[in-house]
């Protein structure tokens, strides 16, 4: 490159930088609009849930399978197919699940399910803090503010600082985001309180059973029996599909964010809320909108 050409190139770069500096507000608006478009698209009415015509969507087995709906939709498989036909016919899907979940043998399946329904991804401190808030909410007759919650934590012997404050701040932030995104669907009303994060692990446990059938690790009968037991736990802990769904969404967000407030996890939660809304929309094959929680 000649000296003259280099000077021209440098001049162009300087001009570009100068334009950006002079028009940064315009650029910020453009970027904001693009982000808004993606968010709006994410919140548009969800498409129909993937549902198989080869299996009933209103049977006792279907009701049990529905507990794993959100997890079963990722990867996109028919929620009411207890044999996971799509997984059975896809070596790449089987390979991905084997790598992600360590699912290679029947023993691997059993260990995964026992882990998920045993500790349910619980953290001792988080459980204690959720219990304190639940008790406070009962006394107040409403959802406590973060300040009230922290005060109750200190009264219970905690410090209200460090990991305790981090959890309170994170949970209430993501809860409020969920309320705002679900305000038109009645999925998360102002008075609804998440008292458990167990929904995420229990939903995953059902999915692991279904995937394992498709991978040839267990029989459909073995899966059905395990899923029935998982459902017994969930139906005793939660009182509705909506309560279970809120627990699933917040459980997933808090687990992967480690209670850190970050845009990345807000975005992921937005998509989980879309799946939640789809599950509750009976007109779009959403099983939670069509099946009874208590039979």
UniProtKB/TrEMBL annotation:
Keyword line: Membrane, Transmembrane, Transmembrane helix
Annotated TM spans: 24-44
Pfam families per record: DUF1266
Annotated DUF1266 domain residues: 97-293
Keyword Transmembrane helix: yes
Source species, domain of life: Bacteria
UniProt name for this protein: DUF1266 domain-containing protein
């Amino acid at each position: 490159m000649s000296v003259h050409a280099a000077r021209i190139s440098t001049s162009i770069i300087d001009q570009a930088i100068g334009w950006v500096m002079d028009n940064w507000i315009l650029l910020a608006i453009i970027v904001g609009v693009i982000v808004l478009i993606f968010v709006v698209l994410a919140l548009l009415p969800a498409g129909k849930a993937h549902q198989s015509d080869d299996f009933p969507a209103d049977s006792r087995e279907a009701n049990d399978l529905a507990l794993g709906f959100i997890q079963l939709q990722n990867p996109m498989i028919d929620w009411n197919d207890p044999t996971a036909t799509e997984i059975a016919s896809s070596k790449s899907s089987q390979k991905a699940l084997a790598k992600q979940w360590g699912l290679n043998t029947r023993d691997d399946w059993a260990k995964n399910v026992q882990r998920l329904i045993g500790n349910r991804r619980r953290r001792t401190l988080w459980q204690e803090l959720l219990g304190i808030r639940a008790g406070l909410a009962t006394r107040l007759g409403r959802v406590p503010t973060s300040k009230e919650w922290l005060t109750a934590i200190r009264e219970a012997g905690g410090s209200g600082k460090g990991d305790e404050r981090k959890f309170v701040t994170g949970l209430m932030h993501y809860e409020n985001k969920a309320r705002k995104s679900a305000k038109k669907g009645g999925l998360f009303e102002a008075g609804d309180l998440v008292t458990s994060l167990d929904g995420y692990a229990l939903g995953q446990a059902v999915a692991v059973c279904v995937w394992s059938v498709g991978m040839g690790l267990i029989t459909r009968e073995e899966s059905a029996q395990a899923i029935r037991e998982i459902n017994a736990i969930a139906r005793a802990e939660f009182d509705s599909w909506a309560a279970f769904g809120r627990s699933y969404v917040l459980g997933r967000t808090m687990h992967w964010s480690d209670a850190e407030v970050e845009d990345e996890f807000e975005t992921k939660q937005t998509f989980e809320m879309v799946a939640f809304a789809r599950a509750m929309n009976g007109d779009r094959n959403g099983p939670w909108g069509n099946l009874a929680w208590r039979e």
